[in-house]
User: Which sequence fits this backbone?
């Protein structure tokens, strides 16, 4: 396997793991009674945004990984989309002063 495919595979696996963990956290919040959750329900919007960001990033990484392994002609477009999505996620979650 080529080094770029390995790197994209690592990104794909990591983002899918983050997406799965966040989605399961959301499912867990569904079972917490409203009177016991208090502050947790205030974070549902933030959690939803994180699920959307890492779900999208995971899907784009999967397409990029497929394009790299099958050597499709459109793989530069897929790789560019992956870099753009990755930069957007880093920008979204980079600590701000």
Assistant:
């Amino acid at each position: 396997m080529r080094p770029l495919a390995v790197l994209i595979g690592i990104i794909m696996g990591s983002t899918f793991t983050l997406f799965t963990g966040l989605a399961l956290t959301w499912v867990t919040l569904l079972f917490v009674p409203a009177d016991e959750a208090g502050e947790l329900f205030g974070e549902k919007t933030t959690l939803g945004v994180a699920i959307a960001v890492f779900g999208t990033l995971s899907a784009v990484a999967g397409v990029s990984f497929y394009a790299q392994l099958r050597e499709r002609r459109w793989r530069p477009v897929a790789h560019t989309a992956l870099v753009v999505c990755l930069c957007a996620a880093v920008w979204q979650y980079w600590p701000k002063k």
Q: What stands out?
A: Residues 61 and 83 are 9 Å apart (CA to CA).
